[in-house]
Batch of 3 targets.
Target 1
Amino acid sequence: MSFHLSTWSIKNPIAVLVVFLTITIIGLVSFINLGIDNEPNIDVPVVSINITQRGASPTELETQVTQKIEDAVAGLGNIEEILSTVTDENSNTTINFVLGTDTNQATNDVQNAVNSIRQDLPQDIDEPIVKRVDFAGGSILTYGVASQQRSVEELSDLVDREIARALLNVEGVAQVNRLGGVDREIRVDLEPDSLLAYGITATEVNEQIRNFNLNLPGGRSQIGGQEQNIRTLGSVKSISALKDYPIILSNGDRIALGRLGQVQDSYADPRQSAYLNGEPVVGFSILRSTGSTLVTVEEQVRQIVQELEQTLPDDIQFTLIFTLGDYIRSTYKGTFDALILGCLLTVIVVGLFLRDWRATLITSIALPLSLIPTFAVMSLLNYTLNSMTLLALALAIGNLVDDAICMIENIDSHLQRGKEPLQAAWDGSVEIGLAVVATTATIVGVFMPLAFMGGIPGQFFQPFGVTVSVSTMFSTLVATTIIPMLCSRLLKSKPRERSSNNFESQRFHPLNVYRRLLIWSLRHRMVTLLLAIVFFIASLQLVPFIPKGLFSAGDTGLSRVNVELPPGSTLQDTEGVVQQATRIMQPHPAVDQILSHVGNGGQVNEALMYIKLLPKNEREISEQGFQEEIRPQLSAIPGARVTFRSAGSVSGSKDLSIILKSSNPTALTTTAKTLEQQMGQIPGLVEVTSSLSLVKPEIIVEPDPQRATDLGVSVQAIAQTTSLAFLGDVNFNLAKFNLPDRQIPIRVKVASEEQQDIDTLKNLRVPRNDGTLVPLNAVATLRYGSGPAQLQRFNRYRQVELSGNLQGISLGDALEQVRALPAMNPLPPEVSEEPFGDAKIMNDIFSRFLGALSLSILCIYVILVLLYSNFLYPFTIMMSLPLSIGGALLGLLLTQKELGLFALIGIVLLMGLVTKNAILLVDFTLAAMEKNEPKFKALLGAGLSRLRPICMTTLSTIAGMLPIALAWGADGEVRSPMAIAVIGGLCTSTLLTLIVIPVIFSYTADLMTLNKKINRSFNMKLKQ
């Protein structure tokens, strides 16, 4: 088909030009409209269940709430993992469904399961919140809001009321999370002495306020002939009116609420705070919705913020702490800079070989004409310019020009025989047409299986595989249509070459050296094969010495630091450690700004610090180097765990994570502590931590059954009284104070300063069955105790996560050393390890890549069999595949790059590239043998005639990959292993292919000849 297309193109130049002009314009328009993102948009079906119970400890929540929720949803189909985290007052269960499950249906199923057991859950919990996890990743940008004239309270109100409302109108914004600040509340701080004096409890006060402070509908009427709504307005109009609100005592008397304590328009007790470079600030972060484009959302948010800066008072100052948009844009720019440079280097290589500016110009046209139409297909498939599609385009640089090089080089060889350009283009395109189609089919056969390898990796790699395949098919279309057409019109005739070979007089001419080497190999075929086998086996022995991992972390310019204090630490304690860490890091010359969020995740003993570094070109140290310098100083802070979050981790906050699970908490705890201690002794594994939380101090109230029964006091009354007095009512039960644009909760509880005295708790009055009150210490014993601060569960078992960061060691090597620790060999019978984190993802990707690669090899063989209508010749071509492995592994070993995700991608590309070279040799050998040339002469002629195009395509690919191998661009260090694997593999495989493939073909041809003789003999016997 290809040579018919080529001859048609030569005869119809206008049609060809119009077609390519049209698809180029469509491609350019599509490129302008393509979104820029960090990752492909994939729909991962995840549903979360969040339940809050005021005052509940993790132990009670686990048994009374979490386990029941897990049991209820466990029977649903297509569940991959159930993860639960239980902390003070909160139970969060996340259900990860199998990829491809309808998320909306899964959410409905989970909601129904939770509703079916609602009556079995405690009655005082907030209503369970079931929702699909509908935002893509973490925050995409974070701002700080500061003012010299306004308090933190005023800034909090500004962020909640004006800034968040404006930003939530931006398409693609899922959440606006405030960092730091306070929540406005109407506080009714009751005095214990006043409650005691008037014989009333905080619970009764709260109920009276809640029952009367309501606005409710009252129906409709038609008084006066008009339909009118009836409204019952019981809500107080002002704070002063609330102070005067009459509270009915047990004896029937009334007393103003203000006489029982302070009533004020104030703020809730702070549970979080934020600091910018050590100064108090209120910040906000933006989370985007699934399906949105990160850079588009980020640009729109920044535009809204600029508009707010113009409309808000002049004293309000916005500070952009960090944005992922800058890193993605720099990655995008770096990729295209490398792509353009690679194109230029490729064209230079072609020019040096062909030494004809016209032919070089024609070849250079192939790159843009192959890439630009690809953007149209990407737009049609709703792809974005993300890490995977940009990687595909970068990978295609050295591949797209190969077909054009093969075509124009063959046409040039016909010109050197004295043919006119039209005839040379005609004959050259017909001669090499099958080889061009075969090489393209093999590239597509290599990469398309990656797009359909399943799971999360399959979703990520689908845009990658499709983009590479589509661009390769366009390159073939260009090579078989516009290249022959332009050659027939633009190239000039050349004088016919003399029949004698000029290189024969030059002993060390490359062509003469190759000729002698090929002759020797064909005459010593067994030795040549043995040497190739030895090289392949020796190359496999390099694998243990190469670092193995997922992929290296790029330099994003943003480091994150986790701060964790022992359970029971106060917000002020955590703020003190954060300020100490700030003083350590801020003087560093690479640091630009530090934003600290104390109370991260709702826990006052935890904080998250964002360290924004100076732009990459303005500092002398990398992000990784900065972390290695600062880490020892942060680790020395007493009484706290201060660790860096991994920038390269896909699934968690640390580079390496190990999950242990068990139904026996004691065995799990013992094993986890031992393993944590042993992991800390592994060189290169730093900041080893365990999710096994320390115990948290508690005040335990133990009701006395005898006294409580005698006095008619229930355990529920005791718990409800203490909870409401010290925390207030559950959120959905709180009375509301109505403002014109919103409602503010009214929280009734004992004054905060009174809660610091245990006598306040002892003297709380608890209601009896007859309505009278007794002191709490009359029916219960109070003592100090302790309990877990946090519990984690994995697939309905207790779990402990042990994690650490890597410093000078690869993920694979660290994982191997952890598995060899005594604590893991063997694990106790009741404890088991669960694959988790980057280690699980790495194993998943490696196994899926192995399957996809096997399918790719099968596809290559099937395609070649169909093209050549033969089973043995394709086998000869396939023998070039193992010859590429050695160079790739050697390149990774010498540069000490990880054998990870990107190196595997490079090896996959090698499969297609080395197959191209073998196809050229086999195709021309078969063409010569069809003209009755002897096998030896055909092999020698094919090798000598194809040496130039093979060297041209190899060097052009190396030139195209060179900028990536040198780690140019924003995330060049991440993609560098891919290019190094390709360059190393091409260097060795090209030489071996040129020598070994002719030898293998000679054996195949002998086998074919033997087969023909046997068939002929068999047929003669049948005739006899």
Target 2
Amino acid sequence: MKKTRIKIAAFIICAAMCAGSIGLGANAAATKQRAKEIAETAVTATADTTKTAPNTDEEPVKDETVYVLAGADGTVQKVIVSDWLQNSLGAQQLTDASDLSDITAVRDEAAYSMQKDGALVWDTKGNDLYYQGTSADELPVDLTVSYILDGKKIAPEDLAGKSGKLTIRFDYKNNQKQTVTVDGKDVQMYVPYAMLTGTILDNACCKNITVSNGKLMNDGTRTIVAGLALPGMQENLGLDRSKIELPDYVEITADVTDFHLGMTVTLATNELFNEVDTAKLDSLDDLTDSMNQLNDAMSQLMDGSSKLYEGICTLLEKSDELVKGVKQLADGAEKLSSGASDLSDGASALKNGTAQLASGAGALKDGASQLADGTDTLKNGSAALADGASALNDGTAQLASGADTLKNGTAQLADGAGTLKNGTASLADGASSLADGTAKLSAGASSLKDGTEQLSEGSIALSVGANALSGGLNTLTQNNDALNSGAEQVFNSLLGTVNSQLSASGLEAPALTIENYADTLTAIIASLDENAVYEQALAQVTAKVEENRSLIEEKVTEAVKAQVAEKVAAAVTEQVQTAVSGQVKANENLIRAAVIQQAAGMDADSYAQAVQAGMIPAETQQKIEAAVQQTVESKIAEQMASDAVKQKIDTLTAEQTAVQMETAEVKGLIAQNTEAQVQKAIADNMQSETVQSKLQSASAGAQALMTAKTQLDSYNAFYMGLKQYTAGVAQAAAGAEQLKTGAAALSDGAAQVDAGTGSLQGGITQINGGAAALRDGAAQIDAGTGALKDGIVQADGGAAALSGGIAQVHSGAAALKDGASQVDAGVGAVQSGAKELSAGAGALQSGIAQADSGAGALANGAKQLSDGAKQLYDGILKLEDGCPKLVDGVKQLKDGAMQLSDGLKEFNEKGIKRISDAVNGDLTGFIDRFKAMVDLSKNYRSFSGLSDGMDGKVKFIYKTGEIEMKDSQ
């Protein structure tokens, strides 16, 4: 049944090709002429004719390729659409319809504008346009890949490294179903797609490989598997599965050991059916007559098999030419052997280079691991800094509360000092009444003595507290430089990390400092604009290609010279052959006389008389004339094959080729083709993976730098807050010093008051006789209380300054707390990035190790190719020696030719008649459905959208993920 499915699928495809072949034949002459023009202007065998072939249609064409990136089970991960707008008329603008996202031009700096109706108007400048985008729309065909190991279904991620009997099945679901009219009835039909799935299996892990609906190609180390499916075709054509089964899936089976699988690729296309001209089906007398013709042709083929015997006889006669061809093949094999040896040497050099690259990747991985370890330590330190900043914030809050209490106390003390000052003034005014109140004075003096003693004790306590506060703040101030220095060191460390990232990415920039980092990073981010990076890459690629312009021109000149020499040689050969023919034909009478003498045994005159007399039969005359012409042609060929004529042709060809190469036309062609190759090289390099990777990574680099700048800005806020905090601590220390001075003055004033009141109490007995002395003492008391009041005012000012300074300290501590938290978060991000860098370095090392392994495999393969080429050369030499045996084999082939007739009869009975019988049941319906299906296919021309006045074609390429063993396995 499997072989039947393959044959039927091939039959359907062949029918489509036959139906379209008439239209192709109509353009054969134009195609031949175009091929000649291309051959005259081609300069290298690697010209990208797919991209440069002109479109002869009058309307632009949208050629669309849809890349479906899927997991190993077929789950769609991303859909990328690449569009080529063929600007056949060189229009300056093209209007296109597209529902893609993230649209970007991929080859030229073309720009587009969006119209109100959603149409895209591209500025093409008369050129073709290439752009791409992404899509989330439903695909016309869904692909599902399932895996069965030893009869049980298994997930692809669990399959790597397993062994057993494995079945891989590719199922295709056609989603493009529409209603069409067939013979007056509405019928559901699918847009036809041919699904071609291929993959490469390693023979080291896969044995006994089979594929349904497909073919296998084995080179000894790998097996290429290709399968064909036509989802929905069975329903479209209304075929009975019991008679004919069209494949709608591909199934691969193998015995596997330590299984692994690279990617699989599936091509989905309806272009095969779009080439069918349904009108030509009627001109072929319908498919009914075609099937009858097929049966008749088989009968003729069987009847004509006897003619094969005559052909084999001809082959036997031409064996000498085959021997000459084998000799040429031996010469070519010798050159192949030499080239394969050179390839082997180059592959060995590549292997050495990848080994050095793998060594460097190992060093990068070790450095990234050390960076990750260092960021762990930095993370622990930043967390401790955050905890300390929080504790400092709480302590400064308590210190601010105490400072407020101290300020209130000094205010009250200042009020008391004012009251005391007023009292001493009253004491001086009332000295005249001293005599009357001595008793009262004695009691008051005793109370004053007690108060001054308390004042003295309080001022001492205040002085001690002020000293302690001043000492504590001085100690805190002493840590300001260390704290600022540590914060600056962390800042510089973060800047150093960003500097290293900039250096590693290849960006040239001045070293980042605390003062310049913001402006520098802003400028770098601006320079990473996509347009700026593209212009820079284009300039570099153009300069590199221009360095090789002379080499390109040399290759182009060689190609053009070869074409010119070929044309000149043909013309020279024709001229020489004309001259030789004239010389030989000038002696035709002598040749005729010699032929007549040999054939008739008489001279020319006698022969002429005999002919005139009717003595020579017409048949004999015809044979003689044929012999004369054959002899003339033989002598012409003999002259043309002579060394002298060949030398003359070679000399004339070389001379005329040199002349032609100096003409302005040829030089202009060389210049034109050289410029075309230079531009193509620039375009190809701009489309290379390296350049495209740089363009794509520019935006990612800008985002990374913006993230780094944001983190540095956050730390800068903390750093400035810390500096404000240390400045506040210093200011608080200065206020405490003022408080210390005021407390000392207060203590001195209190001592003076205490001494004065002692003198007052001691001299009460002398009051009556020393009123003047009393007035003097009252004055001293008044002066002392004034000093006391001044000292308390100073203390109150110092307490206010202390309160303000501590408030700044508290504010700075809060900023320190927030900044420390930001530092901790930022260091966490650095830590995460360092770990990702370490992981990425590990992946890079792994990838380079694979590249090294691949280079080793290439070196081994090149060595095998070299050995194989030598074996091929040895084998062809043996083939050359065995050519005589071939002649004997051809003789034996004559005897077996008659056996072909029996084989053709069996093929007719089991193959052709079976197909004919299967479709002849309802042949008219089959034709109508086939036409409707082709028309349905032609209407599906685009996946992302198509504007009016534009033709289109589309194909889909599905790529599934690899199944590889993990490192732990």
Target 3
Amino acid sequence: MFSRIVLIFIAAFSAMSVFAEPVLFDTNWAFTNGPEFPGASGSYQPDGKMLCNGRPTGVLDADFSHGGNYVGIRRWISESVFVRLSCELMSDTTMMGVFVSDASQQWHYLELPLSGDAGVWQKLEINFADPDFKSTAHGGGKNDGKVYLPLRDLMFRVSPRGELKKFSVRFGNLQVKKATAKSDSANSASRIKPDAPGGLFTNSEALCFKYGSKQPGLRYLIRDWRGNVVIEGAWPADGAQPLCVERIPQGYYTLSLSAGKTTLPGGASFSVLSPLDSSSVNQDCPYGLDVAAVFIPSVDGLGSRTDGYRFFASLAQRAGIKMIRERLNWETTEKTRGIFELQDFTAYHDILREYGIKTCVTNHTAPLWAKKNDKAKLPDNPLAVYNFMKKMSETYKSQTVWEFWNEQDLIFFTSEPAWQFATMMKAAYLGARAGAPGNPVLPGAFCNPVDSGYNKVVMENGVADYFDIFNRHIYEPLCHYPRYIRETRDFLRRYGVEDKPVWVTENGTRAEGPGKGGKDSAREHSPEQEMLQAEFVVKSQLILQSLGVAKNFTFVLPPYNEGDGAKIWGLVRFDYSAKPGLTALAVLTRQLGAAQYQGEINLGRGLCGLLFKQPDNSQSVVFWSKSELDNDDYQPFGILPTQLYKKGFNLSAVAAATVVDMLGISQSVMPKNGKIQLESIRFPAYVNNLHGLKASRPAIAPRTVATGKDGIEKSIVLQLLYEENDGFEVNAFSRDNLIVKRSVQKPRLKLAVWNLSDKPQRGRLNSLPPNVAGFPAEMDIPPFESRELEFALPQSASSLNSVLAVNGIFNGKQISPLCVPITRRDLLVPAGARQLTNAGKPDCWRKNSSGEMTVSRGDAVGEVRFNSKFSPGVDRWMYPELMLALPGESLKDAIAIEFEIKSEQTAHTSVVMFIDDKGSGPCVSYEVIPGKWTKCSVDIPSGGDLARMIRIGMNPDTLNASYQLRNVAIRYGKFTGQR
């Protein structure tokens, strides 16, 4: 099947062919869980105790219990670019994937069979230089299946195999053979290496480039971003010596090559920036970057992980960024309780401190010992959260702001209810404050509409007193920003904290559409897409600043793709050169990083102008023409900056002004009759040395960090405890109410009362409804301990949906509440069922799938079959739609939807959706046993009674998926108010 690829099964530790360079399985390998296919988890660890051929081994653990497509380990083979590799491995899986990228930035993927014998070392040899070499799949770069040497990037990856969802792979004795140096004129322009990191030079540095090989008649040509030739000439010694060119003005440039009459493909980009000094950018400058170098394995393309951290830190510093956002993985830093492994992050932290960069650090993982079970995402131990955050905060207190969790209102990051996040957020805040009392704390970012049920419940639990800065993520069109921030302020006002600052810790766009260059995970933006990205970076930063957002972190600095490469995020390419977006951000910080925003200035229809006051009391105006990026909802995606939207306007001026375009090119403009004449295009530009201008709409006063209300006893934290098999469940998608199942006779819950302080606490609890039985009149709680109480819910209620609220007084102060919306299905009496007759008719179901769907008659009358065929790399889902025949099939007073389903495959998610006339609604999961008819009863969630349409489907684990439905019915009930 694989020509000239040999896979040999051998006894443990047997000898191999000798290759030129050994590559150790050490900490320079980065684990990836295939984030573009959510669900997989695992880890990688080097093992110095078990050796292979006298060298340490490495262990990759894979877990596909909750979905996902692959996990792997990856590194950049910087020690020796390679053409051939040899490795030994042992595993109980039966397939190994090997992923490499070549000199044309084309990737090659091979699937190689394994024995599945975890006790036997297996030998793997691949010769990429063999003329008969053929890969299983390829893409990107030239995308022709040929290997263009040398290779550098190497990944081993595994995928789920049948019923085997958890397994390990042990790697050993990896050796690579060096590439033979030879000229490759078809790709030689890509070998240009600027001396400055990412090609970000300052104009105080020599503009030098290396080529590294000799090519007769080699010449270079440098153009600015507008296409003007700036300088050209012969490369010294035909490329064998470095090229150092004379100083050129500030701006963004491309460098291309030719040899004789032949123009060489590819090239390099670089920028020339003004130097930065202590007065160039304020410490509280609102412009930030999400770097994510800890979680994105691309740092390994630069040598060691520390080398990667230094590279990206240097890029951020050159861009004028004073604060970045990073991740810290609790799951790996405290694998054993109380034992911290912080060497890697400490090295990174020290580098950032050296560069004068502060960090907003988020964590959204927890070790198994701190969670309820291996399926849980949030921790369930408040003391463990407190201790971890205290340790981190006191260790890194000089440079760090802490953000607990990430996008907790999305099901991808939490499966637990809103009140549990609130409990853990309180513990995290108290721990972080104990470690560094002066450092602000943020909650994890709110991503869904801010007033969603989940977010409301979080705030009803008193979380507003446990954060200093409110946190959002925004990936919406620019025209939605004013509404998003207005809704955020209204939301905060509702809970009495409207004066707290708002940060946007992730901000990005999908307006440019899928990458135009390359394929799959190696895709890149086209030059036009890069310019649109640059336009967005500057506009998004400035619009959010004008709306009063105190800090905004553009996502993301390193090269990083999602959706099997379809969505490109990085401000740096995969060859580690900076895109125009990073240069545009660097120009923004230099122009306005020390300025004070004064408000909007009216420049005319279709134009946007923002007024700033500089430290020397002069004024600057940043201006642009509104384009599709400003005005459209990006539907469909794929905006390109083909139209510039040129518009002329005048500004009052008493002296010569300097105009600087988005990428740094500057020119002087002289006033005439007290005015300067300017031309605006879609790309923002800056005009400086202005005086006496007034804002037509004054700036929103910036908020300062507030620490919440005084007078409450924050250290008492309440935690609700329950087990689903005790008769309780939570809607897996909304996670905003606790459902008491119909089968429960006498519902009982537990409450843990935690004292997260070093002082004893004495007090009492109050509850709503008031007749909850089980709370003592008074209780004492020692420092850092808890008291667990069991209590019964009342046997009667005035409505189906109510609220369990617990608060109290400890040491004379009010405590933060526990607030849990409850649906009392145990107080419902069944009142008949109604069969949905249209559900048995294939023509009544509408196709709704990410693949090619067919709907047909099933095995018998009244049964409907749904098939979907998916393309590789597509997010697989199939949720056919059935309109309800209203009013007869209204879900008002319905208590459940019942159906039988027979699925031919497993699925990582199976859901019923209840869709209202606005196209949204709650979802409830169900379980199906593959290969046999399964009876399902799904309770109608809160809001489901408004449904006009239902969807019953799944996210299957296979590319070819099929299931059948029959006997779909609605079960109605009557609320009695008592049992």
